[in-house]
Design brief:
It contains six helices and no strands. It is an all-alpha fold. It has one domain: Orthogonal Bundle (434 Repressor (Amino-terminal Domain)), CATH 1.10.260. The radius of gyration is 15 Å and the shape is globular. The protein starts with a helix and ends with a helix. This is Helix-turn-helix transcriptional regulator. GO terms for molecular function: DNA binding.
């Protein structure tokens, strides 16, 4: 029987883009829960339609960058890009 982590690793290998998108959405959902926001409240605060938030959280849509930034700002999250070559040199 596969564990959740086994499935995550398998997805990361098979479809890295989808894996990253799901990881980001998972972090957004966790932050929304921590803040105690409903989808409707997050929509009101971010300007992102509630229907869009629902579709993202249900895996129907993959969010665009500007949508992610709006949601992240309200949720107190930030994005950063990591230079893999620098990261590998430090290992």
């Amino acid at each position: 029987m596969n564990t959740f982590n086994d499935l995550r690793k398998e997805l990361a290998k098979e479809d890295p883009d989808l894996f990253i998108a799901l990881e980001i959405v998972g972090k957004l959902m966790a932050a929304r829960d921590r803040k105690g926001f409903s989808q409707r409240e997050l929509s009101r605060l971010s300007g992102v339609p509630q229907k869009t938030i629902s579709r993202i959280e249900n895996g129907i849509d993959i969010p665009k960058i500007h949508t992610l930034l709006k949601l992240a700002t309200v949720l107190g999250l930030e994005f950063s890009l990591v230079d893999k070559s620098t990261q590998e040199e430090q290992s």
